[in-house]
Structures are given as structure tokens and as C-alpha cells.
Write a structure and sequence with these properties.
Layout: H1 16-24, H2 26-39, H3 45-91, E1 105-115, E2 118-127, E3 136-142, E4 151-156, E5 166-173, H4 178-181, E6 188-195, E7 198-206, E8 211-213
Parallel strand pairs: 1-8
Antiparallel strand pairs: 1-2, 2-5, 3-4, 3-6, 6-7
Amino acid sequence: MLVVSTETKKKWYKTKWGILAIILLFPIFLMVYLTRLIWKQKWNKGVRIAVIAVLWGFVLLVGANGDKTATTGETQETVTNSFNSGFKAATAPTNTPKPVEKYNIVVTSQIVKKVDGKYRYFFDIRNKDTKPFEGSVSIALFTSELKNPIAGDAFNTTKAIEPELGTSVNTDANTGPQSVHGANGIIKFTYTVKKGNDVVNTGEGTITDKFEDVDAYGF
């Protein structure tokens, strides 16, 4: 006896894999379904084509705007991050250099002596500060024009100069003071006090009128 099965084969969209595919590709299946639904309508063929074209055009336009929005969002985020990075860099604290500790070192002209045809200028370097000083003092000699130094020298301390104490130094020049060479004579001096590489004091003064011609003694 021939047995005919009444069980029909399931359609693909009713199977497990078909349902999964519909879920994953739902937008596409939806558009295909709507397209078929519109095409089955008893409208004029041209009208059906126009409606389908509008439907697909709308979907494509929405998708393009979505991509543009996402791109714009990424660009804005990039700009924001760059701005924040720049702002942080601009407002980041900088290493403020430590202020240079000043020293009240005063240089005064003591006397000028003519020795072996040259003029020896003596100076007193005095520590008027409350702390010992170790460093260097540079002295430059000028005429009244104060353009270029005529002579000068730099003096380094061999040991710390205690407060209210000082030391005497001297430097030679071929030009005498104003009392000897008049307007062309050396009349002023400047000094720069340094501790290491730091300038801790500067100043200027007038060459003293005290003069002694040692050569005249005939020693």
C-alpha cells in the first residue's frame, strides 16, 4: 500500500536558520518585503516604480546622513581632544627658576700709583652683607665717555670674605687718572659681582683723586 505523506517541507523563512538570517538582515528583508508589497498593488506601473524609487532613495539618504553624522562626531571629538591637549599643555605648570640670591658687595677706589711707567689702580672689595661671600668681582676702567673699557681685571676670592670685611686688589693701565691725563684720563669704573655663573650685584664708582708717583722716588 502506497503511503503519501501529508507533511510538506517547511519554507526557508520558517526554519531556524531562516529566522536567524531575517533577524540579522532585518532592514534588507524589510525593504524587500515593502518593495514586493508595493509592486503587488494594482496601481499604474509607473506609479509603483516611482514609489519604490522614493522608498529606496529615502533609505539611502538616511544611511548617508548617519555616516556623515558619525564622521562629524569623530571629527568634533578629535578637535575637542586636540583642544584639551593644547589647553593642558598651555596651563601646565612651568618650572619657575629659582631667584638669584643677591650679595651686597661694594667696590671703592682707594688710590692710583704710577709704577714702572704704568698706572696701578687700587680698589677695596668690601662685604656689606650679613653672609660670607665667595665668588668673583670684575672691574672695568673707563674715561668720561664710558664707551669701551680702557683696562680692567677679574678677581676671584681665595677664601670667603666675612661680613664687614674686605680685600684690596689692583689692576694696571697705560692711561692715568683724570688728574694726570685730564679729559682723556680714567675717571670712572664699573664692577660686576658673580657667584658661580649668577650675577649677584653690579655697580659703578668714581676713581679717587689720591695719586702717588712711585717712579719719582727713584727706587
